[in-house]
Amino acid sequence: MFEQRVSLFRILGFEVRIDASWLILAILVTWTLAVGLFPAWYPDLAANTYWWMGIVGALGLFVSIIFHELSHSLVARRYGLPIKGITLFIFGGVAEMTEEPVSPKVEFLMAAAGPIASFVLAAIFYGIGAVGASADWPVPAAGVVAYLAIINVVLAAFNLVPAFPLDGGRMLRAALWAWKGRMRWATRVASNIGSGFGLVLIFLGIFNVVAGNFIGGFWWFLIGLFLRAAAGTSYRQVVVRQALEGVPVRRLMNRTPVTVSPSLPVSDLVENFFYRYYFKMFPVVDGERVLGCVTSGDVRDLPRERWPYTTVGEIMRKASSENTVSPDLDAVEAMALMNRSRNSRLLVANQGRLAGIITLKDMLSFLSLKLEFEEQEDIGLPDTESLSGDMPSPRAR
Length: 397
Known about the structure:
Strands 1-2-3-4 form a four-stranded mixed beta sheet. It has 14 helices and ten strands. With 397 residues, it is of the alpha+beta class. Among the domains are: 5-160, no CATH class; 249-369, CBS-domain (Roll). The chain has helices spanning 22-41, 47-78, 104-134, 139-159, 167-180, 183-210, 214-244, 249-252, 266-277, 296-300, 312-315, 331-341, 360-373, 384-388; strands at residues 5-11, 14-19, 83-89, 92-97, 281-286, 289-295, 317-318, 324-325, 345-350, 353-359.
């Protein structure tokens, strides 16, 4: 998710982005409104009128989702939670939250803000519709307004289902968290309900497809799959964050990494380092100063006949904020950087000097041992790639 997104605009300090998958939803919504809903509601209109109504209705849904997510973002900012922005994608939208709420109260208020905003927007559209009825507005305009009023009620009602990570599930988690004082337990219960609700939607989708409602059934099926995956991912994120939060990188890093010189020929690098140590990345140092790193991918991209005549310094990746961290950085932030940069290994440097290397494998080993020693409930940790993809945590809907 969110591999190809475009920034649209900023509103109240939040950047609004659109994921490429949103185009699928926009096309499907427009087609459904123009071919199915509006012709059923208002027969005998011209075909091009239905298509214009469908386009305007899809744009209105676009604005409604932004309004919904913006309300979450404003409450989050009010309580000091960082929001990276709002992204629209195939299943709606997310306010990208990089930290979990600090208390049940903040969680509940932030979650409740979305459905409340949608209900308010529905009331506004109903009011506009009432004005239009008294003013005898044209049928197409009245029809689009009526649709937007109804769809905002549906949006609010669906999000109130107590299935994490929907807003209702977050409100349930907040209540359970406040009751027991255990966020992880509350997340597990709410996530299990979310996973179960996703399963119900999957079966509902299959039933509708068999019954002949292919488009509707297909979407219920996809939403069910998404909710089940999001529920499990959200629970793992909480477990990982609580286990690694407050642990500095220096506790987990390898303090004696194997390093290479920038003047080393690539052919020697392959023969004497990659084939000897089986590592996929080596720090490149000049004395005590870290210059960057060289990976197996960098070597693979270089034609083999050039290996003897090319030095490590010519193909290395320079030390930057994308591959280098401080030994005092929180391990949670290091894992988030691994996710953003798609690097499973990071250089650890202190004032330009190499202090070590931290790898995702080492972080997962520490995480597994910590959970075992603390006798925490088994969470079914995913493999290295899927766990790294879980961080950081957005609000998924």
